[in-house]
Here is the input.
Amino acid sequence: MAKLFSPIRFKDVTLKNRIVMSPMCMYSCDNQDGIITPFHMTHYISRAVGGVGLIILEATAVEPAGRISAEDLGIWDDNHVSGLTDLVEQIHTNNTKVGIQLAHAGRKAEDEKFTFSPSPLAFNEKYQVPTELDIPGIKRIVKAFADGASRAKKAGFDVIEIHAAHGYLINQFLSPLSNQRSDEYGGSKENRFRFLAEIVEVVKNTFDGPIFVRISTDEYHKDGNTIDDILYFVDKLKDMGIDLIDCSSGGVIPAKIKVYPGYQVKRCETIKQEKEIPTGAVGLITTGIQAEEILQNERADLIFLGRSLLKNPYWVVSAADELTYPLEAPKQYKRGWR
Ligand SMILES: Cc1cc2nc3c(=O)[nH]c(=O)nc-3n(C[C@H](O)[C@H](O)[C@H](O)COP(=O)(O)O)c2cc1C
Here is the structure.
């Protein structure tokens, strides 16, 4: 039987299959208010009808200054909860679980007047020089993650994913390329991990469901985090009870990345094998057979799909055909299925 279609459990949450819709910004909030729009409803619910096991909503900002763009979703205000609750309920009616990616863009916030980062270093010449976060600033953002987690819980999300990848704020703390602090949040890898550790702690205290962390497993720079540094962070996250490491890469500096099918899977496999923690593979995974190989060879536990699901909301149906898996139709479609 195809492993891609086998269930998997994280805490009390069972996913019906291993297919995850990877978080993807949709730049679709009207009025720059971070509130769900009809587009978001259509976009996410159609992937639930299409049979995805877990949908993770796009990077959702825990404070306005944490938005990548002014059109990003937000979870910094109680006003955000009602729209998110409706979306979660609709996704659930399709027997699909739903997570939310809690995020802060830090120095990569594109439309903000002021940006924040561990050190006053711009991402590149097109970005402004960020303000170095002082300790009250750090504590403010940690609390914003806690409040975001609390609202996510109210809205009924099954999973929270903490965005610690792609060179956004948490990644800016983790990486020696963007963190040049000399206080307890910078310098050694223990110190660079502190900001993420504090966020994990408050999210855990608020939300008792599964918590995933997305990290950049490769920074594509000789002075960036090494695989040993990454394995150290994973070890710590495992000790803290994180349920899955979502293994992406890049974004800390404007590096040129060589991409090819499954280009991020190797590091995902290393993390899973060496640290014995569930992992999610992502990055140019496009076919059911490719996904099945990754799962059968214990290289990952979940398959995250981005662009494949943008192009085809029924990717799951195509993959079932490829793997000759007898996928059950949504009940409304049963009469016309096969
Ligand atoms: C339009 C778009 C928006 C994205 N937004 C996010 C995001 O909000 N958070 C995130 O972690 N990754 C984001 N990503 C990266 C995807 O989640 C995924 O990791 C990447 O596209 C590689 O997977 P793929 O080859 O299956 O598309 C985005 C990608 C795309 C194409």
